[in-house]
Specification:
Length: 308
């Protein structure tokens, strides 16, 4: 039975921090991979998991910069999510260890850059936020299946409300590029990815961290930042609060046996109508299993990878 997309009586809320959520958990002997785990909410996620004893691995484009930020909290491994050969090499190195992977936190992302095309001529937001993480997950699937109770956490956003997946022109080959539509589409893809991954036997959740102005906002204009801050004031959080839902989805016993749902504020989010102006909740196109399967099929076609 699919997990209902409906709030539960959570032990935490919108003001909880990652430190509060992780308190009392013992992750010794468990391994976590956190993409983007050397900055912003990713670094706070790394810090929380490490504090509970987890062995944390952070894939990073700039290894030296990541090591300077992370220190002894995690091991840094080189990877560029938009380069298939780099992702393949990372996956091969990890699988050679023969170890289970308990937690895969697909946290890295970019937001609203100018139009840039990367490997396979894919628009950079879809490539970074979704395709790279799809490739990474599929490469690491054998290690996830070795773990006793593995979980995948996919960082989505309330930004998914800006756009559903456009399966007819997801790569902006016919319509004009709109960087915010591109961002919204990639965040909808992150939510759908969790549904499809969960359906394939590993518990997976998508999460909205809340409004946090981190390095993710580097492509925003001052006017956009001002507008965002004013509109999102009710959901603005500290970095410590922003990482809380990720950590909750990764370790909470309240989610045992559940999966394939979109979470926010340390809870399963409530569904909202497609035309809702609210800055919370999950839109219909980000919680549709049929669309999730369509995205998975598209991702297999793009990458040439699948789960046997």
């Amino acid at each position: 039975m699919p997990t209902p997309q409906a709030p539960i009586p959570s032990d935490f809320n919108a003001s909880s921090t990652a430190g509060e959520v992780i308190r009392g958990h013992d992750l010794r002997g468990r391994t976590a991979i956190v993409t983007g785990g050397s900055a912003g909410i990713g670094l706070e996620t790394t810090r929380a998991l490490s504090s509970a004893g987890a062995q944390v691995i952070v894939p990073a484009r700039d290894v030296e910069k990541a090591r300077a930020a992370v220190g002894t909290l995690a091991t840094i491994e080189p990877v560029e999510l938009t380069e298939p050969t780099s992702v393949a090499a990372f996956g091969e190195r990890f699988l050679k260890r023969g170890e289970p992977l308990d937690l895969l936190i697909n946290n890295a992302g970019i937001m609203a850059p100018p139009l840039t095309r990367v490997a396979r001529n894919i628009e950079s937001q879809f490539a970074t936020n979704h395709v790279g993480h799809f490739e990474l997950t599929v490469r690491l699937w054998p290690a996830l299946r070795k773990a006793q109770a593995p979980r995948i956490i996919s960082l989505s956003s309330v930004g998914h409300r800006r756009a559903p997946m456009d399966f007819d022109d997801w790569n902006f080959e016919r319509k004009p590029y709109d960087r915010w539509i591109g961002y919204g589409q990639s965040k909808s893809a992150n939510a759908l990815f969790a549904i499809a991954a969960n359906a394939r036997g590993v518990k997976a959740f998508s999460v909205h961290p809340g409004g946090i102005l981190t390095g993710l906002a580097k492509f925003m204009t001052p006017e956009e930042i001002e507008f965002f801050s004013a509109r999102a004031r009710s959901m603005m959080k500290t970095v410590e609060q922003g990482a809380a839902t990720t950590v909750w989805a990764a370790v909470s016993g309240q989610l045992d046996g559940l999966g394939g749902v979109y979470c926010e504020n340390c809870n399963i989010a409530e569904p909202v109508p497609a035309d809702s102006e609210e800055t919370h909740g999950v839109r219909p196109w980000a919680m549709d299993p049929a669309l999730a399967e369509r995205l998975w099929a598209l991702s297999e076609k793009i990458t040439g990878l699948g789960i046997g």
